[in-house]
Queue: 2 jobs
Job 1
Amino acid sequence: MTQQYETPLSSRYASKYMLELFSADTRYRTWRKLWVALAKAEMELGLPVTQAQVDELAAHIDDIDYECVRQREKEVRHDVMAHVYAYGKSAPGAAGIIHLGATSCYVTDNADLIIYRDGLRYLRGALLGVMKSLCEFAEKYKDLPTLGYTHYQPAQPVTVGKRASLWLQDFAADLEEIDFVIDHLRFLGCRGTTGTEASFMDLFEGDEAKIDEMNRRIAGTFGFEECFAVSGQTYPRKADSRILNALSAIAQSCYRMANDIRLLQHDRQIDEPFEENQIGSSAMAYKRNPMRCERVCSLARYLMADAANAPMTASVQWMERTLDDSANRRISIPEAFLCADAILKLIRNIAGGLRVNEKVIDKTLREYMPFIATENLMMEAVKRGGNRQQLHEIIRRCSMAATERMKQGESCDLLARLAAEKEFGMTEEEMRAVLEPSKYTGRCGAQVSALVEKIRPLLEGAAENTETIDL
């Protein structure tokens, strides 16, 4: 039998939890839970629904006859009505009150909101795991000097922990954004075909308080405190933009961190985790490619591009409803969640297993320290009676010559050149005493400690997601 295409997000990258959350079975069981909640609220508020009917519906949430659904949908070309039909077959005593007063978006949109909310909570746990690993890494290496880079050119020294704190701060911003989206996510409720609740005005004989109470009860059943104040047939698609923007933000942070590590691994300063029997290349057996970081960057690019779907969809929702959102959302939003899930699992693994090659870092830094320390050397030479302007010119001339020598593959001889200048007034040994790297890292250690102290309370007692996936 010929195999069919399967998205790599499900076959290779995403976690079991996220795959189950966005599965058809979870979605359709959630539809049935919504129908039970609607029937229960209608019964409690006086509509002709009995407790026996509610109980019968509740007893048949999980036994979905998918073959019955498939056959019925083939006939009626409507997925929700096919499920209503199949549910009625399973619960015949309640068949007549299923979906009473509702339109399709009652189950489709509310189910989406429930699934997205749960997905965001799960990703929040994964994000906390990344932040925890980075806090530990940054604290451990907060005082280890390393060469800084601006424009990817050697610059003022920083520390390994301080550089990790830049990544950590980005993730802290992502956590704020995820929390904002979760806290401000609203429920659609049961609002009718154009959001007017006209069907319920009829069912409840104009009692608006009962309509509001029905929606509050249904929302509360699924852990939502509020419904959207107004809606068309669907919930506002701006909510999808908020969600995908938050996932895109996570992708941006992961890409930045992974890309930095790729550059540093090229210089042998830091390595991502590498298994004992891992093969780096089918031809070049010596290779240790930064495969995980490369995968993070690859998936992150996809997610950042995917996030553009939601604002485009939100911008073209005509009046109360148009269906050109449906097919796009079926693909773009689940895949965004699966992709964010995979990226966070990878970056957590990387953050928890980074190898810091301290001798390489020290060697690289000391090679450039004579250039970095030139201002300090000049100040010391002035203290010894030198002329600042004359010393500046000596440093400029000797630096250019030393740089040219390095470009020819030779070692840096800047200190020897400066020591040979009588006007500089310092020996090479005296200059080396000024070159201690820790004197040039400023407040790096204190900055790391301050950031970690600020973030650590967010991690204590939090529901950290520790599920692993194949890497």
Job 2
Amino acid sequence: MMLRIALFLLALATPLRAEIAIQEVTSPGGIKAWLVEDHNIPFMALELRFRGGTSLDQPGKRGAVNLMAATLEEGAGEMDAQGFATARDGLAAKIGFGAGADEISVSLQALTENRAAAVDLLRQALTAPRFDADAVDRVKGQVLAGLRAEEQDPGAIAGKIARARGYGDHPYGSSGDGTIDSVTALTRDDVLAAWQGAIARDRLYVAAAGDISAAELGALLDELLAGLPATGWPMPPKAVLNEQGGVTVQPFPGPQSVVLFGHSGIGFDDPDFFAATLLNDILGGGRFSARLMQEVREKRGLTYGIGTGLASRDLSAEWTGQFQASNEKVAEAIDVVRAEWARMAKDGVTEEELATAKTYMTGAYPLRFDGNGAIANILVGMQMLGLPSDYPKTRNDKVNAVTMQDIRRVAARLMKPENLSFVVVGEPVGVEATE
């Protein structure tokens, strides 16, 4: 326990850095990585990403990639699940695996004195996972328990409906966790196939931060990753979002309704992305001064909170939002959202709103680099987005370069109130379903 506390404190000890020096590293074996070297504390964070994620699930095997990622730490090499956990804890190392729609994430944080042993432990998990039958069944049971709980969660129900409505049979049209039926049917062979198909070098991105040199990182990566297969399953096709606006209502007992809304968005590689990000911040970002918070909550008291966000994913882009409201207030809240969407599409924003949003976005950005783990995470994300290594130095300039003319043009281009789709789960009063 004391070792874990020490590791946590070391992670917090890294000072905030508005500018970071990123080295581009290539291992002797040809594996590319980004590194921020910092020898102030004896601690390193390593982040790996494998593009594809749960969208790689094969037909009839929904949930297999998620189940595989969740079972990677349940034993490796000669160690069963308990042995692996004991070895990890004895090194005061933090090892994590996750699966999203577009990537599988792998994280390692370790003290320098234990780095070699922690890397070897991770190597075994990635290249020689056991997938023991009892471990697969145990993790499957945990996933199924979560899926059963979601059947009684109005937010989860709304998400399920919105995904299916938006993307149909595409992997984005369903949860990467799978369904109760699909997960129940998964076998150890399915998990093994998912590992072989999703964990491969042809979709790998790597970043590290902390007490390690470029030469040391290169040698580490060859040791860690040389045993992975060169290629995996092919990537899924682009997703086409259903752009027909409307209202879907799913009855669910209770005093409140959950509402999800949105339409298509904008890709990160689009030249107008920063203008769109500023628009979103002004419309429904996390600040109380956002228009929807003011109009829906402060002026009318229709909800406790409302927010919007741009989701720029590998295979699609959306502009989405959500709120909860008392059943008798849902109809008015939907009308206000539509009206504000239309008003911004037509009139844009004020000079004061744009200046405030720029100040917030540029001031908050350096705070993201608040430790080796956060830095490594940002660096690997930058690579997946195709950004240059000097992006942290130029990002705020891109935000400040957005003009009022840009805002008006992008608002007119992107904001289509007639395309807004609303999914309501609850017993809303006066809300007419169109689907």
